[in-house]
């Protein structure tokens, strides 16, 4: 019971939360227990471990003071910003230069093809005049950067001259210039409050107060919206499925549009939505489900009842507790509202569920684990071939595989029905053959490595390469080319065997002509997308309806197959992230809700498009992914929700996965 209480605790990483049986465990062993049983708190455990062992009180970094940085460096020391996607220090640099040197003493140039001569001319001019120069995106011209080194050695710059550079990380950056420079990492400001403060530090009081109150309020809504879409990137892949490079340029472009176009007290919302959706922010998005999130945000924030126009009182901003847009044109009034915001954002402020912290910690922990694995892989490759050392490293892998293949069914060749004329039957036979080939490939490789380690066979280049890869705990490329599963080797091997046995069991049903009679889990399959295509083709053949006129429909729960026609399939093992499914409707996840929750069985079928009711306001389409990192889209399924609440579930990042692994 003490371990169960620990498992259910809010902060299981805290030493006092561990049961008395774990009192003697060191911090690292406690962290390993958390990795196995509560991976959703592993990041907190790692931060605690670093704090205890390195004496670091906080992993948070203070804000950058450019004035102090410019004073601490000399005119001969370049300052290099290593930027992250979506971050751009140029606007802040220009503002700081205006304050220190006066307006007109800052210049910048975006590097690229054909800009070398202009950059050299501007560099010499800035050095002679004592102004600031920023060379942007120098990672695009790394072969040219030695020229900058020579110029810096040959010129006699004014004491006020500073050379700034921005770059993405690059493996071939000139080492001498890198050593001479002061390196500064630059990221978009974390947190809604700091993001808004950053926007209003770049907007002058004159710019904010220009024209009318409607425009000033709309600028505040824009800054809020910009902060929301940026902060959602913290919660990948649920906030957004991938990192989109929203930047200050998007904020500036939209502010200019508002200044030149929306001058009345009745803004043209549809025009603004279209520009932001199709050109500015939406132009950076290449995923239809992220595009849905952007459109939901646009509808939520850019609307008349969020600002005071036409004598009407504005409502509080969405997902806030009473925060109103100031009915003012004063820069200080807007800053006053911003400064009242908390330093740490609640996920609900971004439209995300309370339990998303679990998803975030698991994602970040997995990244750190992969980085550590990469370092380990490098050590293994550098160590070369040593039979005794390699035998010790590979013993767990070889033992695991031998235990898995002790079941005689694992290596047994499949035997399907001779009559596999229907598309689904043909798919099952081919899937069973593919699974057998993959298992045989793995078995032959591991056996070859084992025989060399025992001294039975001679070492070859291919065996050495395979052994090195296995020793580092990674899946061989030729294996993952057949099926891209878990990145951890042990989990991948177990999953492959599990799939082989499940597909063989399905093959037995196919022999008796009952391929679709029993529920199946898409996680059994190596190629679930091909199965859906086969089901669609079989439906078209049996219903005499063209394939392109069929659309996927579903019903949740037991005993519902007859509602969808004759060619149906029951899916099981699906899990939901971002919400609960209670009483046949989507419901809000709680703080202690697991990162994914099981769903009831789902009956799917392809029906004629004319029979599909896609306009229902009480249904929302959720994406179904093969993996929890949302990298492999499979299909979309509809789920019931309360009327007109579709955007709520879109914003919370609700999605379905074929398994929790």
Structure, described:
With 661 residues, the chain is α/β, with parallel strands linked by helices. It is 45% helix and 11% strand. The chain has 23 helices and 15 strands. The protein is globular.
In short:
With 661 residues, the protein is of the alpha/beta class. It has 23 helices and 15 strands.
End-to-end separation? 26 Å
Instruction: Give the structural class.
Output: alpha/beta
Mean pLDDT: 86
What oligomeric state do these chains adopt? single chain
Strand sequence of the main sheet, in spatial order?
Answer: 2-3-4-1-5
Unreliable runs: none
Residues in β-strands, percent:
5-15%
Overall geometry: globular
Query: Measured on Cα atoms, how large is the radius of gyration?
Result: 30 Å
* Helical run tally: 23
Number of strands: 15
Largest sheet: 5 strands, parallel
Q: Roughly how much helix do the residues carry, as a percent range?
A: 40-55%
Describe how the helices and strands are arranged.
Elements: H1 2-7, H2 27-37, H3 42-54, H4 66-72, E1 79-83, H5 90-100, E2 106-110, H6 116-129, E3 132-136, H7 145-154, E4 162-167, H8 175-180, E5 182-186, H9 192-202, H10 205-209, H11 213-231, H12 248-261, H13 269-280, H14 288-301, H15 331-339, H16 356-383, H17 387-404, H18 423-453, H19 461-471, H20 477-480, H21 489-511, H22 528-543, E6 550-556, E7 569-571, E8 575-577, E9 580-582, E10 585-587, E11 597-598, E12 602-608, E13 619-625, E14 633-640, H23 646-651, E15 655-657
Parallel strand pairs: 1-4, 1-5, 2-3, 3-4, 13-15
Antiparallel strand pairs: 6-12, 7-12, 8-11, 8-15, 9-10, 13-14
Helix pairs in contact: 2-3, 9-11, 9-15, 11-12, 11-14, 17-18, 17-19, 17-21, 18-19, 18-21, 18-22
